[in-house]
Structures are given as structure tokens and as C-alpha cells.
Model the fold of this input.
Amino acid sequence: MSKWLLNVRLETGEHLHEDGSVQTITDLFHIEIDEHGHIAQLQASNEMFSPNNAQDMQGQLALPAFKEMHNHLDKTYLSLPWKACRIVNSLEERLHFESLELSILVESCEQRASAMIEKILEHGANHIRTHVNIDPYIGLKNLEGVLAALDKYKDYVTADIIAFPQHGLLRDNVPNLLREALQNGATMLGGLDPGGIDRNIEKSLQTTLEIAQEFNVDVDIHLHDTGHLGYYTIDKWLDLVEANDFQGKTDFSHAFSLGDLTTLEQISIAKRLNEHNVAIMSTIPYDLGKYTIPPIDLLAKHGVNIHFGCDGFYDSWSPNEVGDILQKACSFAEVTRKITERELRQSLSYITNGITPLDHEGTMQWPKVGDEASFVFLRSSCSAEAIARPPKKRIMMNKGKFFN
Ligand SMILES: [Zn+2]
Done:
């Protein structure tokens, strides 16, 4: 049986004022959702209309459901007593401290991951890309916990589950553990600083490619290595992609090094990333003194797909963050000085897999009949306002089903 959402606010166009400012135009619609969770009808709001099985959305704005594209569901302390982070002097030391608590935390993995999934869904996402530690200390145990947690929320969220060699790939039996993870529920292969952690860029990348090809899965590599070390790693990986016909199946997370390059170098690598359909997953680092933000506007301008993620939050790496991807887009707009209506609403594309209600020229392009009925409802007048001033209260609907 189909159902109706009444009085949903949708963006329909824009008005260009004489002073050059732009105002988004919205209107109220009734949306019919079929039994498969797709939009069956969109009709202009009409007070006389009172179908069966209807819910009045009271003029709330609908945006496309958000995508959380870089996360670590297995690491969070959520649902456990408060704990701040320990001081460390290096990434190696941070990894050492993590390794000491892995076997203790693993017992509560499903419970902690569930708490984190709920936070992410409450903030409006219906897709999570999570990296999951596959390491010599706990093997596949975190994967089991994360899979069990995701299964409980399968009506509301889809996921990319990445077998992630957090403690290094070229050590112990890690390549075979990753293979095992890919046979047991992981859907993608991860990587981590082939230079900074594995200290053997070529071998690390080659091994990653071999495993990915063996299982025909996509790859997402954490690349914190800065400057030309990181740049060289990306360049080398693209050479391998070319030589092995592995186009369109890889992404880089963080990629801080791209921010360290000259503009000419950035343009040339952006063209290469675009050519091979490699996306960049950014967590918009606040610690700008340590890490340079990748040149997101320049990359996007050259056709590189950009996605945001909150990263792990409230864990042994960082006590901050609440898992709000809309807040992440707001921070991005703030640090890059996006202050106009068009710039603000375009920033939404980084948290919706590229979908915005209006296109660059202000023409309505979403939602359409036949689209998945996956929305975030919020009390904002338009998407630009939602990005600049994220309202706390939101309701997420995934394929016709409300979460909470
Ligand atoms: Zn990460």
C-alpha cells in the first residue's frame, strides 16, 4: 500500500535580485511513496487533499538523505563511560596505545557500533562507509561486531564495509587476514600510508592491488602522508591502476598531501584523478596547523568526486565530534568562506553523493518520480540555510521508512 507525505517543502528555483543576490524559491508538495519505497507522485500542495495513510510534514524542507563516507564504527567509545585521549608524540605511538586496548574493546564492538550508527542516522545519513580494523591483535573480531550492528539497522542504512589494515599491511599475516575479511562480509579493501606506515610504497600498493583484484572489490586508501611523499603515493597508485586496467574502483581518504602542492601540480593531479574516476574522501580537518585541507574546490572544478565523512569519533584518536555530517559541510563552508546562496547550497553535494535539489543554474533537478524516497526533513527555509545554520532536529527517511 502506498503512503503520502503532505506539505513537504521542496526547492523549485531561484530568484536573482537586482543587487546580484540570489534567493532560493520553495513550494509545498504532496509526495506519494509506493510500497517499494520509491516516489510514485509529486503534486503541488492542495488543502483539499486528504488521502488515506498520510502524514503531514508541516512545511519541513526535504533534502536528499546524507551519506557518511569516512567512518570507523569499530573504534568508538560511545555507550561506555567517558574517557579522554592519551598524549602521544607520533602516529606510531597512537597506534601502540590503540593496540593495547583492542582486545578489551572488541567485547563491546556490536554495542558501541550500534550507538554510533544511531547517532549517524539521527543526523540524517542513510549510508555509512566504515573502515574496520583487521589486524594481528584481534583478527576479524571487530568485523563480526560491526556486521552484527549494521544488520540490526538494515532497513535504514546501507554500508561499505572496508577491511582496513590499521596497524600496517606488510607485517605478520595481515594480507591473508584481509583476504579472510573479504570472504566474511567486508565489501571493500582499505590501505594506510604505504610510505609512512609500511615504509615500502611500491610493495604496499602492489599487494593492495593484488588482493583487490583477487576479490574484485573497490579500494579506499587512508593517506595521511603529507607533501611529496603523499603525492608520490597517489601518482604511483594511478600508474598501477593504468597498467592493470583497474580504473573507476579506487578512492583516497584524507589526501592531505594534495594541499601541500603548487596550484599547477594540483591541477595536473586533479586531471589524473578525474580521468581514473578516483574520489577523495575528506574529513575537513580542523587541525589546520598540522594537516593542510586538500584543495576541494579545485578538485571539484576539475571533475573529481568529493565526499565528506566525520571519521571515527569519540575514540582513542579523538574525543570530539558527534557524527553530524551536515555540521561537517557547515564547517567546510566556514573554512573556505562559502557565503553566498549558490556556494552554500552547492556544498550540500559533498554529503549527498553529488545530489542537490537545484542545479548550478537554479533549475529543479531533485526529487523526481521514480527516485528512492530517501530524505532528511528539517526546519530550514532552503538548503543554503541548512548548510550555513544546521538545525539540530532532523528526521531521516530511508526508502519510505522513517528512522525513529
Ligand atoms: Zn579514518
